[in-house]
Every structure is written in structure tokens, then in C-alpha cells.
Design a protein that fits this description.
alpha/beta; Aspartate Aminotransferase, domain 2; 4-stranded antiparallel beta sheet; 15% strand
Amino acid sequence: MNGRPLLNRRLDGLGTTIFAEMSALALATGAINLGQGFPDTDGPEAVREAAVRALRDGRGNQYPPGAGVPELRAAVAEHQRRFYGLEFDPDTEVMVTAGATEAIAAAMLALLEPGDEVIAFEPFYDSYAACVAMAGGVRVPLTLHAPDFRPDLDRLRDLVTPRTRLLLLNSPHNPTGTVLTREELTAIAELAVERDLIVVTDEVYEHLTFDGARHVPLIALPGMRDRTVSISSGGKTFSFTGWKVGWVTGSRELVAAVRTTKQFLTYVASGPFQYAIAEALALPDTYYAAFRDDLQAKRDILDAGLRDAGLQVYEPQGTYFITTDITPLGETDALAFCRTLPERAGVVAVPNSVFHDHPTAGRTQVRFAFCKRPEVLAEAAQRLRKAFSG
């Protein structure tokens, strides 16, 4: 070896994800895992049976079409029409991916040249950093600050330079739970048009909004149809996160660009599950409403427990995460707090600080997931109260 690092320098410092570390702690200690965002129950039985039926019928057991099975592409197009009034050609403007994470990676690899700047709201989902780095891009963070975590749109405008190529947006936003308003999105759209920017939108929590908040796709706004790569998936909406079925919608040209890189990543994935998610997308409105209401009730259980334990709680408008501040507990380091929390309280959470570029940003903020059974959330709340409020 010549002394050169084995890992590509672009990925220096990324290492093992915080989710792997905290989930390993949960297993080692028997703690309740409110760190990684996956449900502890499966989604609708009819959807699971659709996957079994596809397996038995031999649909998707071999390589499916590179762009995704026609049934799912048609279902995604119908979903966009049904919920947002958007029209997409399922043959040229919809593409299936191995979850939203692959869609984001493929988009970054397709659309960025080395040195291109990407503005993303921080804290951000950790794969954003890796995907931008692998593409040779330069990440430019716009920090969302407590207590409301709204974007400073004047600051956003100031961050745009001649090197800015792309905006990477996530709404509903993980980890803060912020849902961008139509007014905020309109301002972002106007800026994108004015400065000729591409926007990649991560909308995987689109159906997980609370208290009357509603998701508005940026691609639906004036001027955005031909400059937005819209990404979503079935994992969060239908509670089958392990199936890894995501999709991209956008103009023919943008989808073709993303497909060029996607085909050299997984090429295809999740064959039988694609048929099942196609059926899931056609579930009646009552499913989506009941799912949202159930999650809101779970949010409220954990919200109350966290407050009783003495944490400052920032109530989310969407996703299935609650961001808290540990300062009222006399704590100042979220990462150290989360590493000791399993032993102290029998609960696992994730520090928001790892989702920031700025070393001091989010340093006292901790994220808890509430996509668990009510009795599990109640037990976690009881453990936290016992550990911190006597």
C-alpha cells in the first residue's frame, strides 16, 4: 500500500450510519428502539398477500423491466393524478427504484458535475451527504432552527451562487417534522425558475401529516414541471420499509437522465413487491385517513411522555419522528446522551447533531420515532419518566 486512504476521500468521515450504531445498542441492551424509523408491525394484510400472490404466480421472480413493472408505473401515475391532479406518462415520466434512497443517489449522480453546489436543509437525512459526495458535489446547508424549524427564505436566496446546480428538499421533513407551506414552496419555486435551478424533492412522508397540515408537491407549482425530480416510496405509507420500493416522477428528460445512472446501480430490485405496492397505491381514501390518524395518536402518546420526562418537545407536523431538546435535563451533548440512554433508561434515540454539517448545530437535539405500537410507546415513555423525572 502506498499510504493512500482506501476509502474515497469524498466519503471521509461518513463511516457507519448512526442508525446502525443505535440499533446495535438496542439489540445489545434490550432497549426499546425509538431510533431507527421502521414500524414494529406490518402494513395491510391485503398488500402482504399481494406480494405472496406475485411470488407464487412467478411475477417479478426474474428481472423485471428496468424502469419498473408497468402495473406499478401506472399505479404511481394514477396516485399523482388522484391526490395532486398531476399527469405523468407512466412509460416515460415514471421510474421505479430500490427505495427512495437509490432514487436520490441516482439523481445526484445523474445531475451533478464535480464542484456543483447543492443546497439542502439541515438537519438532513444522512444519505444526502453521501450521495452528494459520491457525485462530487458540494453540499451547502441551510439550517432550520428551533423552535419552528421554518426555512429562512432570504438566507436561501443568499446561498445561491453561480455554482449552485440543485436544491435538495425534503417535506415533510425528517427529522424535524416540518411540512413546507404552499407559500414557502411558491417562494422556492420562484427562486428555482429565476436562477435556473433543478430541484430534487424527497416526499416519502407525503401521507404522514397531522393537525390539518397537507403536503403540496413542488412539481405542481408554476414553472416546476420540467425542473423537478419528485421522489417517493411505498415503505413509509404502507409500513413495508424492507421491501425497498421507491419511484421517481418528472419530465421525460429528467427521468431519462436519472434512469441512466440508476440502471448501473441496482438495475432492478424488489420484483414481486412492485406488484404489491401497485395494489397498495389503489387503497381507498379511508386507508390513508386511518393511517394518518393512527400515527397522530401515536405521536401524541410519545409527545406527552417526553414532556413528562422533562424534555423540551417540538411537536412535528409530519413524518413519524419527534425532535426534542435535552437541555432541560442538564445535558449538552446529544450524541453522548444517546449513547448512554439505553443503559440509563432502556430506550434508544438518535442525535440530531449527526444530521448537521455545522458542528454545534443540533448539538442538544434528539430524535425519537413514534411508528411503534401504542403499548411500546407507553412503556418507553414510562422508562424515560422514571429515568429523568423521578
